[in-house]
Amino acid sequence: MKSLLLLTTATALQQAWRVGEEVLGPRRVARALEVRRAGEARRCAALEAEHARLSDAIAKVLKHRRRIHTSAAELATMKKAKLRISDELAAAARAARRSRDARVLGAGACGEVYAASHAESGRAAAAKVARAPRARRMLRREFERLRAARVACGPGVVEPLAFLDRDDRACLVLARLGPSVDDLFWATTCGTGFSGGTVLRLAAPLVAAVADLSAAGLVHRDLKPANVLVDDGEPVLIDFGLCAERGAVGSSEETFAGTARFASANALRDGPAVPGDDLESLAYALAYLLCGTLPWSAESEATADDVIDEARALADQKDAVEPGDLVSGVRDDDPLFDVAAGVCADLLAEARRPEPDAARAAASIAARLPRTPPPLDWVAAGVAWDAEGVLHLPGYDG
Q1: Which of 46, 112, 157, 278 is 20 to 30 A from 65 via CA?
Q2: Tens of pLDDT, residues 78-126
Q3: Domains and their CATH numbers in the chain
Q4: Opening angle at CA 129, ends 282 and 97, nearest 5
Q5: How far apart are the first and last CA of the chain?
Q6: Is 175 helix (H, G, I), strand (E, B) or coil?
């Protein structure tokens, strides 16, 4: 596994973050951690010496039992002390191994995302690291957009904790959340579709977040199930690498940046960022989560180097789909399926208005929600995850 260096921003000089075995923060923090590591090494060396002494003593007693007058109680005490030291050394080795290894949580256009933790409090975090000059500039831009989005949306957007830009890399430290909605979708339904109730519970806060972003003059431009994480049962938007101010134009005429399956027709044509982009992408994402498919042929998750002609052809396919045809099929055993399908259709229709209004869409969805929140499918199915983010499925875990 890789080890990385992290540093906090100038606004968080009292913090230091750990990724793998290395920590770089305020100099006094780094020095304190080095002193702590040296002290732990001395403690382990003393334990190893005591373990060796006890081993020799026990072996000597057992070999010369007739000449050495040691009671059974004394011998048992020595063996217990040796066992306790063995446990302490094993625990220290496990801790050192965890400290050395930087676990990869995912990857994006800028670089890999690693598991991180606060060097003092131990708070879990995620660290997005970029090395190439262009990727580092993109990461700084994402940090700035993310701070503005967090102010506008509150807990509906992942919390940015710190940012570093040093000689060889840039790093964005984010709050660690639960698994993605996409992971839960596959773990719970194997791609067949969430219940209408679960889609409605996801739709309401996500549309509200889109409305808040729109009010702040921001457009996410990459809304999809994989960019929505779960925190205490609530959806949280992540990955603001493509986020743009309203009216911003694309930077390339030869490539499409985004996820073709869920991108708006306007984004596929490389048009200026508009609020309708997020509403349209959200309509597609919710429809996909509801029935596991979308009415066009773009099944690839590729996010870069798409030929612009192919992107425009897909935009034409999407424009040809009427809002009422976005969700196909029926579920007689799901009383909220039609309600959720109607929400998807209304979102797409709102996105296609000359002046889309996300706040109006949010109010419409809130009015359709049942008074008693329906259970989330992954909760009802017993899907859970541990502190490391590993999903556990009932009947599959040993």
Answers
A1: 46
A2: 878 888 888 888 877 766 655 444 567 776 666 678 888 877 777 888 8
A3: 24-99 (no CATH), 104-175 (3.30.200.20), 181-392 (1.10.510.10)
A4: 115
A5: 26
A6: strand
